[in-house]
Predict the structure.
Amino acid sequence: MLMTKPDAAQAIQENLTIAGRSYRSRLLVGSGKYRDLEETRAATEASGAEIITVAIRRVNIGQDPGAPNLLDVVPPSRYTILPNTAGCYTAADAVHTLKLARELLDGRQLVKLEVLGDQRTLFPNMPETLRAAETLVKDGFEVMVYCSDDPIQAKLLEDMGCVAIMPLASLIGSGMGILNPWNLSLILEQAQVPVLVDAGIGTASDAAIAMELGCDGVLMNTAIAGARDPIRMAHAMRLAVEAGRAAYLAGRMPKRFAASPSSPMAGRVPAL
């Protein structure tokens, strides 16, 4: 029997909840790498995203009164602005950056933490990430954290009080897709907070696979901004995340090593 109108409880369950706040979209997008602010606005709208990440060290959200302000095209009245620490390589720099963001965004506590290990791979420096996360959580921040796809590190971050775990699928900006689905599955199996794939998504099928694995959401920037048509790709990513989530909830058929006919054998017309 098809259900045409989900009840209120199911509708709430279908939303993404982070730090007690509910979001209809499970696609989170970045705000960098676009040709201009108008393209940023149009792609963000096409994505349907409600949470927009902002690299505080690279994007003006009020630090420079004389420069174009990102918040003019992605206003906080419409979107949840998620400041991140892109470009930070130490815990101290990351903590300082997010304290600045809190001042610029009127006390905003929800943040995305990333502490990078080197400029070539942009892989997370996990000792520094753990150190920064501990400091930020103690200071009242609600920390969504970029991390390696190591289930032990992910559990440490969750136990520390992070509100979302964000393992990489592959290197930032690589577009290589999900290289280690087994590790993601281990993280998902144990997590009691949302798990969102962060980094490495290249196209819509990558986003769908992440959602089919059971991830709670996907964050991306380069996959959209680096596409030939960013606005069309943003729309494609929106559909992919929705389709992947629906497929996960529906439950895929089991894989078999032999064919299984679509039509039953019983009651068939006898052969001549």
Q: What stands out?
A: The beta strands are 16-18, 21-23, 27-30, 51-55, 80-84, 110-113, 142-147, 164-167, 196-198, 217-220.
